[in-house]
Amino acid sequence: MSDVYVMGIDMIKFGRFPERTVPQLGAEAALLALDDAGLDIRQMEAFYCGNLLQASAMVGQRILQEIGQTGIPVINCANACATGATAFREAWAAIRAGLYDLCLVVGVEQMGKAGLLGGGGGGRGIPTEGLLGSGLMPAVFAEAGMEHARKYGTTFEQFAKVSVKNHHHSTMNPKAMYQIETPLETVMNAEMIAYPNTKLMCSVNVDGAAAAVLASERKARELGMGRAVRVSASVLTSDPYTDRDLVMPDVNTCTRQAAKRAYEMAGVGPEDLDLVELHDCFATAEILHYENLGLCAEGEAGKLIDEGETALGGRIPVNVSGGLLSKGHPLGATGVANVYEVATHLRGEAGRRQVEGARVGLTHVIGLGSACGIHILERVAS
Amino acid sequence: MTEAAQARKPLPIRPFLKIPDDGEPHLEGQKCRSCGEIFLGERIACAKCGSREGFEPVRLSNRGTLYVYSIVHRSFPGVEVPYVSAVVDLEGGGTLKGNLIDVEPDPDKIQMGMPVEVVFRVAPRKDAEGNEYLTWYFRPRSD
Fold first, then answer.
1. Which H helix or E strand runs over A171?
2. Which residues, numbered 55 to 114 in chain B, qualify as contacts with chain A under a Cβ-Cβ cut-off of 8 Å?
3. Domain that includes residue A87, residue range
4. Residuewise pLDDT in 10s, chain A (382 residues)
């Protein structure tokens, strides 16, 4: 089976673009990625498009209406917040299987001011939000964080430090929604949404798009490997049944299983990683994933953030893009934007936030419900 | 409220809350005949072991312990805040989510692992037809 390479990848600056359409945002990212690869839409053999909120609206085909209707297969996919990673992985799988040599991937979302997400379901009867507890995302991830607090004594302050770090990182990322230093007191004193998550510990609802051009090894060699990035693992899991599964979505087990398979597939371990972009949809979530991805021993995530190990310059920088907390979280775009961030470091093109000498990086997303997507990427040029 | 709705007793907020004519309201779990896992609500096969041998209804305990919680300060318009969203492990099996009441919404006043009981009350919301619903809450217990 063929190895798969990222030949071009880019994202638009995340923000709020109410005057633009989803296909326009996706098309802009697609052209950026094609330009980055030095290729043209007419060379693409298939197009994998990730979008969640317009999942029935043929977003991929509408993007081609903006940039060139070449008649190639278009696969529209939706998988909650793992949507972009799923589109990326499907393109990877098709190339690996030998179906195509060149594929386009786009993840795109227009969130508007979406407000609080979740709380759906229930069907007949009366609304149960605030009656049978909370099904809203801030509370769901607050409760997941409290499970860690219960086991290991993790504090509100430690959770808040995640947000301070990621906001700091985003000051060096011109494509992030925000570039604002956000001190600990500001994070902790911000409006409490669902304890222990304050408003500044919740990801930002933004519009955004990211795109990638993937190639088979044969095609990558033909085009030149100079800036190519190897996809050395691609894993997708769903949530296996675990205790309390009925009332607490489990983001841990599916991440652990995906990480284990990804490390095996790539032949690397967490100690080999130079940077990680993980799913910090809430500050509490990032703490959980330090251990889920094996970045530290069980129970030591609080210590990891306290000692600055996951900040730029630390032992294993996490979310140097600013993460979902400050770069923003346009659901379907997130999984491709994470790959963009890691690829940019592996290419040595990340500017002020560059992780020096980065050779191997990992991206991770979680779609609640649940889906976990992990990719491990490696620099090719020596 | 229509007269018909008035004459009816409250409806269960979830189908697994049973309201017998001659007895106390209680929660009913579905116990997998193969692996013994307890579910709330009926399903086709077991989510844990995949068995299709079916389920046995079991009456769940009204006693449990607080597993985790969050204090919710912002919710949908019309939802009274702050309130405590809680996950409770019931004695003998079953995990349930609901509001924890009769405690201050203050992390210093809530201990994970604390004993709680399940109580049943008419919910402060009605449906479009004026039907009332019986719901559950958790509150601290001292025994």
1. none
2. 67-76, 79-81, 83, 85-87, 89, 95-99, 107, 112-113
3. 4-113+204-377
4. 889 999 999 999 999 999 999 999 999 999 999 999 999 999 999 999 999 999 999 999 999 999 999 999 999 999 999 999 999 999 999 999 999 999 999 999 999 766 666 655 444 689 999 999 999 999 999 999 999 999 999 999 999 999 999 999 999 999 999 999 999 999 999 999 999 999 999 999 999 999 999 999 999 999 999 999 999 999 999 999 998 987 999 999 999 999 999 999 999 999 999 999 999 999 999 999 999 999 999 999 999 999 999 999 999 999 999 999 999 999 999 999 999 999 999 999 999 999 999 999 999 999 999 999 999 999 997 6
Contact criterion met (CB < 8 Å) for B70 and A195: yes
Instruction: Please report, for residues A133, A376, B15, the alpha-carbon distance to residue B59 in angstroms, rounded to integers and kept in the order given.
Output: 22, 48, 13
Q: Provide the domain limits for residue B112.
A: 3-140
Domain count, chain B: 1
Number of folded domains that form chain A = 1
Please check whether residue B122 touches A, CB under 8 A. Answer: no
CA distance A232 to chain B (A): 32
> Residue B73 and residue A133: Cβ atoms within 8 Å?
no
Kindly report whether the global pTM for this prediction surpasses the value 0.90: yes
- In terms of CA atoms, which chain B residue is nearest residue A140? B70
Say if CB A377 and CB A359 are below 8 A apart: no
Phi, psi of A119 (to 5 degrees): 80, 5
Answer whether B85 sits within 8 Å of A241, measured CB to CB. Answer: no
CATH of the domain at A258: 3.40.47.10
User: Cα separation of B47 and A143, whole Å?
Assistant: 23
Write out the H or E segment, with its range, that includes residue B19: none
**A195 within domain boundaries:** no
